[in-house]
Predict the 3D structure of the following.
Amino acid sequence: MSVQGKIAPSDTDVLIVVDVQHDFLPGGALAVPDGDAVIAPINRLAKAFQHVVLTQDWHPQGHASFASAHVDKQPFDTTELHYGSQVLWPDHCVQGTKGAEISRDLNIPHAQLVIRKGYNSGIDSYSGFKEADRKTSTGLEGYLKERGFRRVFCAGLATDFCVAWTALDAAAAGFETYLIEDASRAIDTNGSLAKAKNDLSAAGVRMIGSAQILEG
Ligand SMILES: [Zn+2]
């Protein structure tokens, strides 16, 4: 659902900045169209939040989500892994590589946690909370709950995969959840953006624009 009106971030709100890494930016291995357009709004938004968490896609070489790890598969094909359907990607965000680094153009020195995900070689993890087997936790839910956060605001790359799945899991964990649309960009392969928007709406995730966040 889309929500109107201004929002003033409080001490119990957290901004999750999803996967703003070189490989998802122009020139990267899995560049999201117009991906660098998220950086300016995220930098502005982050100033309004006392609490910011970053996620970082962080795969070992030969990861199961890479098309190159499967015989006769191309990037953006789909395959069946032990936990279900998996879109296959170009090799991206390999641990320790430049492509996996968080963009230095992000200006969020006060970010409090970087949560890495996708490091189990056989399981992808779009979500910052739970891997694609839908069982293995990253620990983020416990972290946010232990710190007493109530509302979660998500932005970053890509809207229809890692941002959407992070927002869906935040909502499922009981947080009041917002997705900041103009601070996110989509890959949109095989109808993925329309599907993500349906899923977000069904889960009660609130869609907002960055201009609705009041800067402190
Ligand atoms: Zn990945």
Notes: The radius of gyration is 16 Å. DSSP finds four helices and eight strands in the chain. The CA atoms of residues 127 and 166 lie 4 Å apart.
